[in-house]
Amino acid sequence: MTPLARQYFEQLDKHDQLAPMREKFCLEEGLVYLDGNSLGVLPRATANHISQVVTQQWGNGLIRSWNTHQWMEKPTKLGDKVAQLIGSKKAQVLVCDTTSVNIFKLAAAAVKMRPGRSKLITEIGNFATDLYLLQGLAKLLGNKVEVIALPREQVLSAIDEDTALVLLTHVHFKTGAMWDMASVTQMTQKKGSLMMWDLSHSVGAMPINLDEINVDLAVGCTYKYLNGGPGSPAFLYVAAQHQDLFEQPLTGWLGHAKPFDFEDDYQGAAGIQQAMCGTPPVLANAALEVALNLMLSVDMHLVRVKSQLMGNLFIQLIQQRCPQFGVESPTDDEQRGSHVSLAHTQGYAIMQALIARNIIGDFRAPKTLRFGFTPLYLRYVDLWDTVEALEDIMLQESWNQPEFLHRQAVT
Ligand SMILES: *Cc1c(COP(=O)(O)O)cnc(C)c1O
CATH top-level class for 6-30+299-405? Predict the structure, then answer.
């Protein structure tokens, strides 16, 4: 393999159709941000829009703005925007709550839709909240259902006629390994089980076709590749064919058929609206709306192609220049999401040394260094510069200093 040169990366940037998108984001000069898979970058238009919503809609409009600015309709309006990113028709997606809460609502609804079935199947090493929420649900139901968490290779063969739900994360948060959504969904449904996908690490990074694949349920996060801002509300998807039988347990007033009648007895709204619980976060929704509009202005196929190439080039550079790192992610880009994970026993300190050089990735215990590739605001030269810095850190052993070895609360 001929060694790559920086000029090659400069040329790629010159011909990159997505390059102009970088201008739409606030990125400090000299910063290389490889953590957009964990917290996306602030779009330039967000601060102004929020400021307007605060001063005009809230400040001047006050309570009238619920109607004049359709604050109450944002969960469905934004849901329809997310729908376009995940291959869903309208009225199947709602923007509300957190991914964690939405997993609980949909998993509980799935158990009701598959009466008599006792298994909730998921993967060992799935994102912790996905596992915890299923465990909490099983406990609440008096262990009438059981969580079966298995190593990745054993998940598919465990799905049987007693399985109510299979919950998997499309792109694994640590390794970046990607499930084949179509075939797994098909295998699950062949046993009469429901399929729920957690799209937290894939939405905004690649095209997704939930309707075409006939997925039952899905959830996902909006502060990662979608750039909605820290703690921005999550989304949930309930396929139209399930909405009649869909009954979620957090029966708050805004999921009621007529919330403003304030009746004493709960009666769920028709359609996706029933997945609502309480009052929508108006300011967070305002930030998310700007971010979604930005994402909807690009061709998701271009995003995926750039992300795959970035991952491939990064792995190639690491293999050439930093062979002391193991590559934890699939090297086949068809089986990989939009981040690449490297393994090293000193991973934490090495990442801290990199961050001290203004190159930000993150660390996941016990030894994973994660590098997220977000095609809207990353340049190909950023990859080159990152590996150059990493090579230098390893050669100089500059990670081996007390300030880099001390572990902070959030990694
Ligand atoms: C980020 C992420 C979440 C986040 O859940 P929150 O409720 O927003 O904290 C959930 N699942 C997966 C797979 C994630 O990557």
Answer: alpha beta
